[in-house]
Amino acid sequence: MDLRKLITHVRHITYRPDTGGAVTDSELADYINLGQQFIAAKITGKDKQYFCEVDNTLGFVSTQREYDIPEAIRNSLITLVERTDTSPPNKLHEIRFQRRESFEGGTIGLPQPLGADGGYYYIRGQKLGIIPTPKTTTANSLQISYIRQLADLSYGNVASGTSTSIKLATTPTAGDTKQINDYYNGERIMIVSGAGVGQTRTISDYVGSTRLATVDAAWTTTPDTTSMYSFISSIPDQHHEILGAYAAKLVHIKVKDRDGIMAETARFSDLLLMLLSSVEMRTSDSPKYINITGDNIEEFS
Question: Strands 212-215, 188-193: parallel, antiparallel or unpaired by DSSP?
Fold first, then answer.
C-alpha cells in the first residue's frame, strides 16, 4: 500500500474517517514512518543483508587520505569497504581513528597482502579515511556496502514532471520532503491521482536541492501539476498491514482508548512475529548436499 492508502486504512480500522478530527493525516504519516523505522530495525536484526546496498562513487586520489562519505550513506551502518581496482576485490579492515598512524607505514601485522594503496579504513564524523594514504589516483575504486535507511514516506502534489522524473512538493500533503542527495534512491513512488494515475516507478537518483527525483523507467504518461504522488514502503508488500497496526496503536494511545491500545498491541505483535518468521526462513534456507559413500547416505550443509 502507498502512504495515502495506508492513512485511509488506519482511519478505517480506528473509526476516525474525518481528516479534520482528532488525528491529522500528517500525524498518521508520522506514526506510519515511526512504525517503518521500528520494523526495519527488527528485520535488520534478523538479517543484516536485507536492506543492504552498495555505493561505488568513491575512488582514490593521490596523497589524499580522507574522503567525504556520500550523503546517502551518512547515518547508515557501513558493513564492508572493498577495493575494486584489484582482482579479486580487496577487503579493507576497519581500524580506530586514534590508531591510524600506527598503520600508515604498512608494516604492522598486516592481515593480508596489500597493494600500494589502502588496506585499512576508519570513520571520522562524515569522513572515510584510507590507510596507507593512496599514492595513485583511481576513480570509483572503493565499494562501500551499507544498510540502507528507509526513507520517510510522504504524499503530495507533483511540482513538475518530465518523461523520466518528477519534482517533489516543497510541502507535501502529509509527511516531509527531504532535501538530501540520494535520500529517496531505491524507493518506489506511485502516481495516485491526476495525469499518469496508477503508474509506479523506482527512484534511481535524487537531487535534494531541487527535489528532483529521476525514475528507473520513463513514464508512460508524464505526470504534471494535476498529479499526486505517494511513496510505497520498502517493508515487504505482503506485510504492509503491520504498518497500519503500529499507527493504529499510536492513534488509540493519543485518544486514550484502552481497549483499542490492547487490541492493536496484540495484533501488531502477531503481525511482527509473522514478518520476522518469514525473514528467518529466508536467512536459514541454506542449501543441502547429499554425500554418497558406498551404501551410506549422509546429509550435510
Answer: unpaired
In a domain, 289, yes or no: no
Q: Is residue 220 part of a domain?
A: no
Asked whether residue 287 carries a pLDDT value surpassing 60, the answer given is no
Residue 63 lies in a domain: yes
pLDDT in tens, 146-190: 998 899 999 999 999 999 999 999 999 999 999 999 899 999 999
Q: How many angstroms from the chain centroid is the CA of residue 91?
A: 23
Q: Quick one: pLDDT band at residue 299, thresholds 50, 70, 90?
A: very low
- Number of domain units in the chain: 1
Residue 203 lies inside a defined structural domain of this protein: no
pLDDT at 100 over 90: no
Q: How far is residue 57 from each of residues 70, 276, 292, measured CA to CA in Å? A: 8, 33, 48
Q: 219-258: b or e for each residue (b if 16 or more CB lie within 10 Å)? A: beebbbeebbbbbbbbbeeebbbbbbbbbbbbbbeeeeee
Share above pLDDT 90 across residues of the chain, in percent, rounded to a whole number? 65
Position 255, amino acid? V
Inter-helix orientation angle 25-46/258-284, to 10°? 40
Q: What is the DSSP letter of 260?
A: H
Q: pTM for this structure?
A: 0.81
Determine which helix (DSSP H) or strand (DSSP E) holds 100, and give its type and residue range. helix 100-104
254 vs 296 pLDDT, higher one: 254
User: Using alpha carbons only, what angle is made at residue 213 by residues 211 and 216, rounded to the nearest 5 degrees?
Assistant: 175
What element of type H or E holds 281?
A: helix 258-284
Return the SS3 of 269.
helix
Scanning the structure block, which residue is given the C-alpha cell 480500522?
A: 13
Q: In which domain, by residue range, is 83 found? A: 52-147
